[in-house]
Amino acid sequence: MLLKDKVAIITGGAKGMGEATGKKFAEEGATVIIADLDFDSAQMAVEQIQSSGGRARAYNRVDVTDSATIKATVNQTIAEFGKVDILVNCAGGTFGSNGSSENINMNDWDRTINLNLNGTLYPIMEVLPYMKEQKSGKIVNFSSMGAFNAYTVVLHYHAAKGAVESLTHNLAFELAPQGIHVNVISPGPIMTPFWDELMPQGPERDQFTAALAKKEVPLQRMGTPEDIAGVCLFLSTGLSDYVTGQKINVGGGMGNIISHNSTFLSSEENGKVNK
Ligand SMILES: NC(=O)c1ccc[n+]([C@@H]2O[C@H](COP(=O)([O-])OP(=O)(O)OC[C@H]3O[C@@H](n4cnc5c(N)ncnc54)[C@H](O)[C@@H]3O)[C@@H](O)[C@H]2O)c1
After folding, report:
1. Does the pLDDT of residue 97 top 70, yes or no?
2. What is the mean pLDDT of the chain?
3. Residue 273: what pLDDT?
4. Distance from the CA of 19 to the center of ligand 1, in angstroms?
5. Which of 145, 42, 19 lies closest to 88, judged by CA?
6. Residue 8 contacts residue 35 (beta carbons within 8 Å)
7. Mutate to test the pocket of ligand 1, among 9, 10, 36 (most ligand atoms within 8 A of CB)
């Protein structure tokens, strides 16, 4: 039981990586608070955890871009359990997938920055007073591989995620003397409902993701939400007590090593350049 007696708030915990992380945390003994815009799905995630013998709550519909809704959940958590040990900022996504410089729509830009950047900061601001008082805390934020390795151009989303990484590093520096750890996970392509916004489910999507995995992912498969939950668990337990301000790429090898089938470095053209 790596998280016995710990209390964790997970934004975006109703689906995808947040949902898998909640289940994993509950298996390890944590009380899991799901803070999600989709309150029905949040309640379903809570019921699933409870039916497996875990402890979970979803107090209200939380919009991470609206501080008042986060405050309500944090207040309820403190009232019922007296503390918050862990905050996982999973809520994120993009509005309008075509974000090239020619097509970017400023409304999509504002909403995407608001969701990913402000929506990471606001929950942090609400839990910090309690973490500072107890002189401990673990915060895990979510970036995207594309923030610094853009395989596709999605300006607003990638810029927001780049800023989340910067926010992580600055907060880690500021909060380290107070025993509060802040790290960031940069996922590669992970099969979650996130993809529903980008393309409909079906054979075309299966073909696309299979080709993407083969070409770009050194381990040659798409990731699962559980792949992320394991790393999130590490960053939320005492196993990572000497780790703060770090980014962990969780993308089947993407980020640091080049895929065997990938583009430029392994190509003949590059061989010619090197000769
Ligand atoms: N899936 C991927 O391939 C991928 C890759 C890189 C980064 N990411 C990032 O990882 C994180 C998790 O992604 P996922 O794939 O699990 O996403 P998902 O779309 O499967 O789930 C996101 C959850 O966040 C909730 N949510 C959305 N807006 C919200 C808001 N304003 N307030 C509260 N909750 C809100 C949704 O209801 C949903 O339950 C996100 O930050 C995403 O940007 C995902």
Report:
1. no
2. 92
3. 39
4. 10
5. 19
6. no
7. 36
Encode pLDDT of 33-86 as tens digits. Answer: 999 999 999 999 999 999 999 999 999 999 999 999 999 999 999 999 999 999
The identity of residue 75, as a single letter, is: N
Q: Which domains does the chain have, with CATH numbers?
A: 7-274 (3.40.50.720)
Kindly give the distance from the C-alpha atom of residue 192 to the centroid of ligand 1, in angstroms, as a whole number.
8
What is the Cα–Cα distance from 217 to 149, expressed in whole angstroms? 13
Residue owning tokens 């090239």: 100
pLDDT of residue 150: 77
Q: State how far the alpha carbon of 119 is from the alpha carbons of 89, 105, 156, 164, 188, in Å.
A: 8, 20, 14, 10, 21
Annotated catalytic residue 157: yes
Give which of 155, 161, 157 is closest to 143, Cα–Cα. Answer: 161
> Residue 238, SS3?
helix
Q: Does the global pTM surpass 0.85?
A: yes
Tell me the C-alpha distance between 14 and 34, whole Å.
Answer: 7
Percent of the chain surpassing pLDDT 90 = 81
